[in-house]
Each structure stands twice: as structure tokens, then as C-alpha cells.
Please model this.
Amino acid sequence: MDLLLMRNLEQFFRLVNRWPVKLEERIECHWPPHGVLLECHQGRLLMTTWLLNTPARDLKPYLSRWHPEAFAGRVQRLFIVKNRLMISCLCPSTHQGHDWYHLYQLQQKFLNRM
Model:
């Protein structure tokens, strides 16, 4: 993991008030009511967020309530894994820790409305 990515992860965890965290290529955190998975891929961050205790079986109702403009042009993927609704985004390489924090807040907001 390069130094810039590490500094951005540090900034993200400070903004969510969860520092210190051991920085690795893959970090999974459970902060009720949400879980978040951060994966580093070639200098980019893949962020996946989900509700820990809210089961989901059918994607259709969630897709009908999903509006891409709510994420300011950042492509999001909705999917279900083990009966959990997940929302994921591969962040642009130009994004920094504060951008990740803002995206995390948007993903939480979307999930909380469900």
C-alpha cells in the first residue's frame, strides 16, 4: 500500500472518529448499525457499506428507491450478500480521505432510509 493511500485511510478513520486502526489492504469494521469494508486496489479504494441487522431478500424494492444523483455522479452498486443489502463504490484515484468520508455518509444515509 502506498504512502498516499495510507494517509488518506488515516484521515478517513479520524473523520469517522475510529482512529487508530491497523491499516491493511482489506479492512472490515462493524460499527452498529453499519458495517464497512474498505479494500485497496491499485491506488484506489473500494468501499462497501451495509446494515448489520436488517435482512434483505429482494433487490427490486431498493432499486426503485435508489437515485444516482444522490451520490453526485459516483457510480454505486447495490447487491445482496447473505441477506444483507450492500452498497459499493470504487472511488476515483483522485479522491482523498475526506471524499471517502463524505461517500461513507451518503451510503449510510441511503441505507438508513431503507
Notes: The two ends are 35 Å apart (CA to CA). The helical segments are 3-15, 60-64, 97-113. Residues 62 and 114 are 7 Å apart (CA to CA). The beta strands are 26-31, 34-41, 44-55, 77-81, 84-90.
